[in-house]
Write the structure tokens for this entry.
Amino acid sequence: MPRLELNPNFTDPDAFYAALTEAHRERSEEESERINARLILLLANHIGDQQVLEEALAIAGQAADSASAQQEQR
């Protein structure tokens, strides 16, 4: 059964980050949210495996919960 790849797997992480930030440059917050939503759906479609997607959602949710808890402690 496929599992979510958690080890670095980018061929060029800096190039991806540059492309991602460029896609958001001079966009409104609403446009950026739309870009992010579309990117998520495109990548989810590419992955395709429901278990892998649910694992990714769970990990992303944990990270969001952790960040919220850290902000509350400040």
In short: Helices lie at 13-24, 29-47, 50-73. Residues 13-73 form one domain.
